[in-house]
Write a structure and sequence with these properties.
GO terms for molecular function: coenzyme F420 binding; oxidoreductase activity, acting on the CH-CH group of donors. Strands 1, 2, 3, 4, 5, 6, 7, 8, 9, 10, 11 and 12 form a 12-stranded antiparallel β-sheet that branches. Strand 9 (129-131) and strand 10 (134-144) form a beta hairpin. The chain has helices at residues 19-28, 66-73, 104-118, and strands spanning 2-5, 32-37, 43-48, 51-53, 56-61, 76-81, 90-101, 122-124, 129-131, 134-144, 148-154, 157-163. The chain has a single domain, classed as Electron Transport, Fmn-binding Protein, Chain A (Pnp Oxidase, Chain A, Roll), CATH 2.30.110.10. It is an alpha+beta fold and 164 residues long. The chain is built from 3 helices and 12 strands.
Length: 164
């Protein structure tokens, strides 16, 4: 991974945010905004939780939902998290391709993360999450492999780029 401060979008006093600090924001966030592109090119954005595990950012959705349909056509997505404050906090943007996660072993680890972080009760089906409250509802799980991550600090204002 390469880390660099983006000078043209940063205060001259700013230094690159260490990756460990950006990762803390990712790992502690409860909500992200997922951006995908529809078949006709229009954007689609939806809030959802995501979990960091071993270099990937995982999220789930129903196979019938718009975001899953968009991913069938274009695997490149963006997950964004941070604050809604202009003057404080750190915002993080994670860009990259997604793949479907179907390993039941990996899904079992992710189920524990969802439970520990959010109290969501999933179980593992055949390559999917099953909702304990609605056993007929299956959720497919996607893994975003970061190609680029941007972190934005507010005081001093800075943009740090991490490329993988």
């Amino acid at each position: 991974m390469e880390t660099s401060i983006v000078g043209e979008f940063s205060d001259p006093r700013a230094e690159a945010l260490p990756w460990e600090r950006a990762l803390e924001v990712i790992e502690s966030a409860q909500m992200f905004w997922l951006s995908t592109v529809r078949r006709d090119g229009r954007p689609h954005v939806a809030p959802l939780p995501a979990m960091w595990l071993e270099g990937g950012l995982y999220f789930c959705t129903g196979a019938h939902e718009q975001k899953a349909k968009n991913i069938e056509v274009n695997r490149d997505v963006v997950l964004t998290t941070g604050t809604n404050s202009f003057t404080s906090g750190i915002d993080v943007v994670v860009e990259g391709p997604v793949t479907r996660e179907t390993s039941n072993d990996r899904l079992a680890r992710l189920v524990r993360l969802w439970k520990d972080k959010l109290g969501w009760e999933f179980t593992v089906g055949d390559g999917v999450f099953l909702d304990e409250g609605n056993p007929d509802h299956e959720a497919v799980v996607f893994a975003l492999t970061p190609a680029k991550v941007l972190a934005f600090t507010k005081e001093p204002y800075s943009q740090t780029r991490y490329t993988f």
